[in-house]
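Minutes, project check-in
Item: structure for the 229-residue chain
Input as provided by the requester:
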Amino acid sequence: MNAQLPTTDKMKPVRPRDAASLVLIDNESTEPRILMGKRHAKMKFIPDAFVFPGGKLDPHDHVAEAATPLNADQSLSLTGAGNAKTKALAMAAVRETYEETGYLLAEQGDVGPTTGDTWNEFRDLGLAPALHHISFMARAITPRQSPIRFHARFFQAPKSALTGTLKGSGELTDLDWYPLSEALKLPIIDVTEFILTELKNAEKGYPRVSPPLYCYLNNKPRVLEPKPR
């Protein structure tokens, strides 16, 4: 069941909230496997849909320090944010992944003076995010007519870089590593389908030259190719 995000014509457009997701890929099998989970039926935003770990950018993510920096490459200029905010978004993706799945993308390090329950846990463990494992993949902005809007950035990282044990927090159910072909058959929204299709195309050997922007013009999905700043 692949569908577009919900929209309504009865509300004034709301400003999208910054968010980040981490697309985790297991390349050790014959077919790549993707970590996904199902959102609860009572959630206001895309209930019952399978998604990647992720969530909203938190103020603490701007303050938290990483063990290793993001790899400097041209794709980072396509996140729709400056360098500092892009780093904060990557930190948010790592934090949300730990909260929702129990997996850590981290190495020995100090997250610094930042607060918040999750960053406090990192500090207690003597760990900080290992951002050098992450690469920027794409971004998406929900329709102007949507009652809940996000400007989401999708990062990706290999399963081999993770530590910890898969243990959901309860926010996502049916957490598992799904073969790419099966993931495309799950109940997903159009943005998730687009990201999975990008992975499928990359597997076939024809990835995009630069990370795309998935957005909506006149309430219809469009894929744009932004130019590096």
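Outcome recorded: The CA atoms of residues 111 and 119 lie 7 Å apart.
No further action items on this chain.
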